[in-house]
Automatic annotation (TrEMBL):
GO terms for cellular component: cytoplasm; ribosome. CDD domains: AdoMet_MTases. Belongs to the methyltransferase superfamily. PrmA family. S-adenosyl-L-methionine binds at T141, G163, D186, N233. The keyword Ribonucleoprotein applies. This is Ribosomal protein L11 methyltransferase.
């Protein structure tokens, strides 16, 4: 197994600094993850906790100087948490449960144990089962990956993965569209954490911002809009409810991949999105499960 030496720290940032602050931080750390600051829930102003992960121990004075300069530009004061190594035991706990390697179109989804088995012609995605949905085994995930491969002729710069689970679709998107920045959110904080870690493990931590969001109800999701591509593998009813938020946050000509529902529910999901001005481009079938590809144009 590859030896991984990771270090972490964090600081709080006001919502007003987002998302430009994240762009400025990209170069500084191996991964940047964003979480709503729980200790601050009762205050009116939303604050975000920015977690920075490094693949080496950074020099504290240089790190602080670099961050001071960046936060100064965004008009707030830096209060940096202590720099700490991430215990190897914690890291391994995330990678403990084995995923059965799966060849899914161009993708090879695997766990740590099969890291060396990625075929030369495949895009490897390393995820671990157990903590968050998205090992690649479910037909809805597979239908989304199929649909995404069908879109590789298009260019996407801003991608949202809503209901990211393990981050599998966000990581796939970061590989398929190397120029894209990806926002990956889940209403489960564990999934957001796992996604940040999986993004890092897959070498795309700098382009995926992982965080917690209940549907579209977070600054993180709203401030990075409009999106060229939205991926949402959730369930029929939440997708239908969220259709009214989705449409106004799509760029003109933007594309949506929806899954998490069976054939019987497809007309309801499609109807709710057609009512918002979207039209069907394609549908993918995997057993009883469906994915819909929609666009604004
Ligand atoms: C079916 S899993 C999909 C995981 C992964 N995207 C995949 O395709 O394998 C659905 C995910 O959506 C999250 N989720 C459900 N409702 C949500 C909501 N209202 N807002 C954000 N995430 C939600 C769940 O916690 C879960 O991780």
């Amino acid at each position: 197994m590859r030896s991984i030496s990771l270090w972490k720290t964090n600081f709080l940032a006001p919502a007003s600094a987002m998302p430009a602050l994240l762009d400025d931080l990209d170069e500084l750390a191996l991964s940047v993850a964003v979480f709503e600051d729980e200790a601050n829930e009762l205050e009116e102003t939303v604050r975000w906790r920015i977690d920075l992960t490094f693949d080496h121990e950074p020099a504290l004075d240089k790190l602080e100087a670099g961050l001071q300069e960046i936060v100064g530009r965004h008009g707030f004061t830096l209060r940096l948490a202590a720099l700490e190594p991430i215990p190897e035991a914690d890291w391994l706990a995330v990678t403990a449960a084995a995923v059965k390697p799966l060849r899914l179109g161009r993708f090879f989804v695997h766990g740590a144990a099969a890291r060396s088995e990625v075929p030369a012609d495949a895009i490897g995605i390393e995820v671990e089962a157990g903590l968050a949905f998205g090992s690649g085994e479910h037909q809805t995930t597979q239908a989304c990956l199929d649909a995404m491969e069908g879109l590789t002729g298009r260019r996407f710069a801003r991608v949202l993965d809503l209901g990211t689970g393990s981050g599998i679709l966000a990581i796939a998107a970061a590989h398929l569209w190397p120029e894209a920045v990806v926002t990956a959110v889940d209403n489960d904080p564990v999934a957001a954490r796992v996604t940040a870690e999986n993004a890092l493990l897959n070498g795309v931590g700098g382009r995926i911002t992982a965080g917690v969001s209940e549907g579209w109800r977070s600054d993180l999701v709203r401030l990075a809009a409009p999106y060229d591509l939205v991926l949402a593998n959730i369930l029929a009813d939440p997708l239908i409810v969220m259709a009214t938020d989705l449409a106004p946050n799509l760029a003109s000509g933007g594309v949506v991949v929806l899954s998490g529902f069976i054939g019987r529910d497809l007309p309801r999901v499609l109807g709710a999105h057609e009512a918002q001005g979207l039209r069907e481009l394609e549908r993918v079938e995997r057993d009883a499960w469906r994915a819909l590809v929609l666009t604004t144009a």
